[in-house]
Amino acid sequence: MALNGRVFCVMVKPLPDTDLTMAILSDITESRQIAKRREDFFANASHEFKTPLTVLKGFNELTALNNKDESINKYINGIARETDRMLSLIGDMLKLSELENTQVSNLAVVSLASTVNKVYKSVSAAVNEKAIIFESVGDGTVTAEPGTSMNLSKC
Predict the structure, then answer these.
(1) Structural domain of 131
(2) pTM surpassing 0.85?
(3) 10-66 pLDDT, tens per residue?
(4) How many structural domains compose the chain?
(5) Which residues contact 26 (CB under 8 A, 6 or more apart)?
(6) Which residues are CB-contacts of 155 (< 8 A; sequence separation ≥ 6)?
(7) Within the chain, what is the greatest distance between any pair of CA atoms?
């Protein structure tokens, strides 16, 4: 859920063996910003490393074609092996970055008033018993996964 430029994780969960429901709202704006910077860094660093390694690989292949000294072959082969390994690792980093950026979710617009009413229904007996005044004014919407209780570790 986003509000005033901040990102919040909302967890609503009924408490077992009671008529109570617990709601937790956690501000996760900073952790989301850090995660985004990390994703951007890996994507950019991967691209930046890939170009010079590809150039090194090309120069090494030219060296191998023009090499007349057998004693240098072990170095040429070592460079080829290590540049291939590094390019493979960078390819894996790019794939991982791409996968992280294409997460599919079932987000929908959820009415807060409707959610509050559902919570009230689950706690109404306790509210009435303790003579608590429960009032909900207005309505707003958030983008969330409807009908699921969220685990804070998912946020």
Answers:
(1) 2-154
(2) no
(3) 888 888 888 888 888 888 889 888 888 888 888 788 888 888 999 999 999 999 999
(4) 1
(5) 8, 9, 10, 11, 152, 155
(6) 9, 11, 26, 28
(7) 94
